[in-house]
Specification:
Blueprint lengths: L1 E4 H6 L1 H9 L4 E5 L4 E6 L32 H5 L3
Parallel strand pairs: 1-2
Antiparallel strand pairs: 2-3
Organism: Pelodictyon phaeoclathratiforme (strain DSM 5477 / BU-1)
InterPro entries: YefM-like_sf
Protein name: Prevent-host-death family protein
């Protein structure tokens, strides 16, 4: 992720948006201390999301979770 001050974002907005379309992300810095305040990231269209497959067992097993099962998706995937 690249970071840019507000002035540069204003001056180069078209170029930045072209890069965002290609998958890049940009942080926006603001104020005298150049603190990060926002990000410009690619838009993810929810219609384009595909259903996740569960590895080699996809279509061969059925996975269900109890109603009281409490685990975040990140914990389930081992990301947290």
């Amino acid at each position: 992720m690249k970071t840019l001050p507000v002035g540069e974002v204003k001056a180069q907005l078209s170029e930045i948006l072209e890069k965002v379309k290609q998958g890049e992300s940009f942080g926006i810095l603001y104020g005298k201390k150049k603190r990060p305040i926002a990000m410009i990231v690619p838009y993810l269209d929810s219609e384009k999301k595909k259903e996740r497959k569960i590895g080699i067992l996809d279509g061969k097993v059925k996975i269900t979770f109890a109603d009281n099962f409490k685990m975040t998706e990140e914990e389930f995937l081992g990301l947290k």
